[in-house]
Amino acid sequence: MTESTTGPSTPTGATEPLITVDVWTDVVCPWCYIGESRLHDAIAAEGLEGQVHVRAHSFELDPTSPADTVRDNIAHLVAAKGMPEEKVREMEAQIQEMAKELGREYVIGRPMANTRGVHRVLQAIREASGVDAATDYFMDLQRGYFTGASNPFDVETVVARAVQAGLPEDAARAAFAGGTHDAEVEADVREAVQMGARGVPFFLFNDTYTAPGALPLDAFRQALRQIAEETRAEPAQS
């Protein structure tokens, strides 16, 4: 875990969280799915439920993916990484086993396409309904993607979830189609890169400490414990 001097602003509200965790993520990122699960397991293990505020931020793993083509994720990885299909399936099976150990489903066969539309909708929800609604929207889509329950490349699926998050339907459709919020997506990505991110997941704790990758559960627990102790030791603001 490294220290950062930049980060998002502290959320407003009646009660300040003990710890704020900003996470840069992509909806199709398997390590983001694993990392998010480990983070929440660590929060529970440290007895910090209700004291940690998680905020999702946009980061595209492959912005060059075609927006108008949806294909199988195995074929995509074979082409993108230049790996034999057997190796890709072996890698997917290993991640599936990790998810199983965390009590989560992980479907190996999944659709794959450009994720910019999902990120634009995230930004539109954040603007209209706040960061918590945007984070819930994104994490729900990501979990649904890896369990086979939802397709984040289907416009009706994304729009329905965005409406549940408080975004008007026409605004959701405009954002998904590319009419709005590209600048906000790019600003999120740029902020992470400036802090040293080269991929996702990428975590920022209390606007101070950064951690790349899906940390092991014990590492998340240690980080949360250390930051909680530091925060509790800070003098109260008058």
TrEMBL record:
CDD domains: DsbA_FrnE. This is DsbA family protein. Pfam families: DSBA. It comes from Brachybacterium tyrofermentans. Residues 20-224 form the DSBA-like thioredoxin domain. SUPFAM superfamilies: Thioredoxin-like (SSF52833). It comes from the Bacteria. PANTHER family: GLUTATHIONE S-TRANSFERASE KAPPA (PTHR13887), THIOREDOXIN SUPERFAMILY PROTEIN (PTHR13887:SF41).
